[in-house]
Specification:
alpha+beta
């Protein structure tokens, strides 16, 4: 299923989204607004456990560079955004598992492995089903890529994200020390979810 071909009514039916809200593939024109959404969401989610000096480095310029790289390398990964037609409400990425970016784990499959990363919904629009819809859209993208399992690394202390993935069938697979911004070390947990579980979502 190519979600970019769905009309507005189909989005409501397939993703259980409120009317006027759709999910689409991001383009370079979206980078600046996506970076702002990421900054706001990232700092709100992590302010309870990341040090202030790390949080300050998560600025719009930093996240714009990340989204630019993801969109540029579109053969192995996809950036998606949630929009109401006027502004971006959330964004996320999915693609082939990136071993060079993640902690070392012997439990991650060596074949047909996908990854879910950079998933953010504005705090003002959370608990409305948008995160679930974005997860479903990203799993569908991994299905199109031929991935069988999807993995996501989450800060150990990020209880909100951990509960979200557990609620949707993800399994706590491993734990290791990861590196944020190429210099700061934090404990992370790896969750795994079978890609075809997307078809079990109501």
């Amino acid at each position: 299923m190519d979600i970019t071909e769905l009309d507005e009514k189909a989005f409501v039916d397939v993703f259980n989204l409120p009317e006027k809200i759709t999910i689409k593939t991001a383009s370079t024109a979206d980078i600046e607004e996506m970076a702002l959404v990421t900054k706001v969401s990232w700092q709100a989610a992590f302010s309870g456990f990341l040090p202030e000096h790390v949080l300050k480095r998560g600025n719009v310029e930093f996240f714009a560079t990340i989204w630019s790289e993801i969109i540029k390398n579109s053969t192995t990964q996809t950036a998606l955004l949630v929009t109401d037609g006027r502004k971006i409400l959330g964004c996320g990425a999915a693609g082939i598992y990136r071993r060079m970016y993640n902690p070392v784990s012997q439990k991650v499959s060596r074949t047909n492995a996908g990854e879910l990363y950079r998933g953010y919904i504005l705090p003002s629009h959370q608990n409305r089903g948008l995160g679930r819809a974005l997860l479903k859209a990203r799993l569908l993208k991994l299905y199109e890529l031929g991935c069988q399992s999807a993995y996501t690394w989450i800060y150990e202390q990020n209880q909100q994200a951990r509960r979200f993935y557990e609620k949707h069938g993800a399994v706590n697979l491993d734990q290791a020390q990861g590196i944020t911004m190429k210099r700061f070390r934090f404990e992370e947990v790896c969750y795994s979810i079978e890609v075809n579980r997307v078809f079990d979502f109501s």
